[in-house]
Amino acid sequence: LGLRQAWARLSQAQAAAEISGAFLYPEVNIDAGAARSKSVFDLTGQDFFDNRYSVGLGLGWELDLWRKFASRAEAATLRAVASRDDAENTALILSGTLADAWFSVQAQGALLELLESQIESSRTLLELTELRYGQGVGTALQVLQQRLQLESVEAEVPDIRSRLETARNELAVLLGTPPEFLGDSGVDPGTVLPELPPAPLLPSPRALLEQRPDLRASLARVEAADREIAVAIADLLPAVRINVSAGFQAGNPSRLFDDTVWSLAGGLVQPFFDAGRRDAEVRRNRAVLAERLEAFSERFLVALREVEDALVRERHQLELLDRVRGQVDTARKTLVESELLFVNGQIEYLDVITAIQTLQRLERQEIAVRQGLLANRATLHLALGGDWTRDLEPPDRDDARPGVANASLSEENDA
After folding, report:
1. Beta partners for 58?
2. What is the C-alpha separation between 287 and 277, in angstroms, rounded?
3. Which end of the chain has the smaller Cβ count within 10 Å, N or C?
4. SS3 371
5. Which residues pair with 32 in a beta bridge?
6. Cβ-based burial of 122 (10 A; exposed 0-12, middle 13-18, buried ≥19)
7. 81 with 220: CB under 8 angstroms?
């Protein structure tokens, strides 16, 4: 829905550009009228009526001697170009946000499955501990410790379910669908996080400018501000206006086209005194240009930083993933060794509980790290931009729009 708003803003900007371009051409109007007047003569006491009927064309045109209207039209066209780039940037950001929500649903689903597996293992251990206690081998303390370990894992489930459901709700809203209809739309991210794809090719700074729609939009607004300065300067110079009218006029409708009337007028207007308004407008537009130029420079530097930040995070996230996986492998070996030592009576069962909790915590951490790695890769692609947004087309307004309105209509029809 946010993308549809961006397309609507693009339509507004395109219409504004057409309006500005229309001032380059003469304005022609069709005039038609009828009038009746009455005159009273005091001497004779007679009334005299005069009827006049007219029809004709009127043309008004201000010559664009100093490219005032041309510059204004160019500025409006550049703003429309920037609005198109804004829509593409909205699509790019939306794709990144969707990727984050998608990975979040997958990660929470994977965590939920992992917790269910850990709960099953903990229940099996609890049954074995209770069996040992029943045979007089174990102690009640060991049973209570294992039961507490099981309950601590089960306590994680409500929070993970909450995160999973809210992530699905976020995904539904991003797709323009009410949360309760997400399943009906056929969207199902599943519970398996994908592997990290190969790293993308890094563009040059010049190529980054061409691939990032937000940078293109910022640059187009700089150029539009430059054209507005030309408009303000041209407003200080003389203006030449031409008015032409031609038509027919008569006192009787049947003789309307017998008499032709026309007029041609031209005028030169030179601003003389406006209390400094036009000079201030020139200074204002120059300040706007300076502001937008600095904003573009800042945006470009931020874009470079976003790419570098994503690369740094990915490098360290990959290192973290390797370390966590190594810890998971060590924790599994530690658990096996702890169970053997406990069976031989060399350690307490609390040491086994600690090994179990460490392994389960690291397994959950591995999923979180993998999700963060994928989300960061999506951020890197977002920072790099791309040319796929140039192929996007605004939606057909005549088509049925998916989303809240259609869902509400479906509910009304069902009722």
Report:
1. 29, 245
2. 15
3. C
4. helix
5. 55
6. buried
7. yes
Q: Is the pLDDT of residue 409 over 50?
A: no
User: What Rg do the C-alpha atoms of the chain give, in angstroms?
Assistant: 38
Residue 190's CB is within 10 A of a number of other CB atoms, namely: 11
Q: Is the pLDDT assigned to residue 413 strictly greater than 50?
A: no
Distance (Å, whole) CA 190 – CA 174? 17
The span from the CA of 324 to the CA of 28, in Å, is 76
The DSSP code for 358 is H
Amino acid at 37: S
- CA dist 412 and 415 (Å) reads 5
C-alpha angle with apex 57: 33 to 67, nearest 5 degrees?
135
pLDDT digits (tens, 9 = 90+) for 182-239: 877 778 898 899 999 999 999 999 999 999 999 999 999 999 999 999 999 999 999 9
User: Measured between alpha carbons, how far is residue 254 from residues 17, 33, 37, 51 in Å?
Assistant: 45, 15, 19, 12
Tokens for 155, please give them. Answer: 């306590």
- Give the SS3 label for residue 136: coil
Record the tokens describing residue 5, joined without a space.
């708003």
Sign of CA dihedral 141, 142, 143, 145: positive
| Cα–Cα distance measured from residue 261 to residue 253, given in angstroms and rounded to the nearest whole number | 15
C-alpha 321/C-alpha 366 separation (Å) is 7
Residue with tokens 């992530």: 167
The residue type at 4: R
d(CA 359, CA 272): 85
**107, 62 in Cβ contact below 8 A?**
no
Q: How far is CA 130 from CA 36, 56, 123, 265, 347, in A?
A: 113, 106, 10, 109, 18
How does DSSP assign 178-233, residue by residue? Answer: -GGGTGGGT----S-PPPPPPPPPPPPHHHHHHH-HHHHHHHHHHHHHHHHHHHHH
What's the CA gap between 67 and 214, in Å, rounded?
29
CA angle 67/241/66 to nearest 5° reads: 15
HSE-up of residue 152 (Cα within 13 Å, Cβ side) = 14
> Are 365 and 161 spatial neighbours (Cβ–Cβ below 8 Å)?
no
Tokens encoding 6: 């961006």
Q: Which of 79-88, 233-242, 335-344, 392-401 shows the lowest mean pLDDT across its residues?
A: 392-401
The total number of residues written for the chain in this structure: 415
